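chain below, 119 aa
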Amino acid sequence: MRIGPFIGATFVAVLALSGTASAKGKLSCNDLTTAIIQLDDVITQLTDRDMVIAGSGYDRSLRIAAETALWLANIEGNSALQRYAKGMISGWEQKDIDRYIANGDEMIILYDHLYRRDC
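prediction:
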């Protein structure tokens, strides 16, 4: 069962605001797992492009997910993650869902790499 993008984005935002990641300056293995799962859920839900209506709750969820992805990338201090998160934000601002998805997919791949390397 997939969770809705608003819930997924909110869950990632809660993770971002937790002391675990910011206290260590890097994402914990649990944080990486959560980021991978939640970001993948948000990206997967974007296959239904008709659901994205400017100003809707769904649209705001996509913005929250992109901004949270950038926040997490900044914690990790990884320039590639930061670049892809900024690409997600740019995709959201330009209403370019393909750009949003492509950058989100790249972030998931990098998070997965970090998880395999560090955990």
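The chain has a mean pLDDT of 76. The chain is about 80% helix and 0% strand.
thats it, cya
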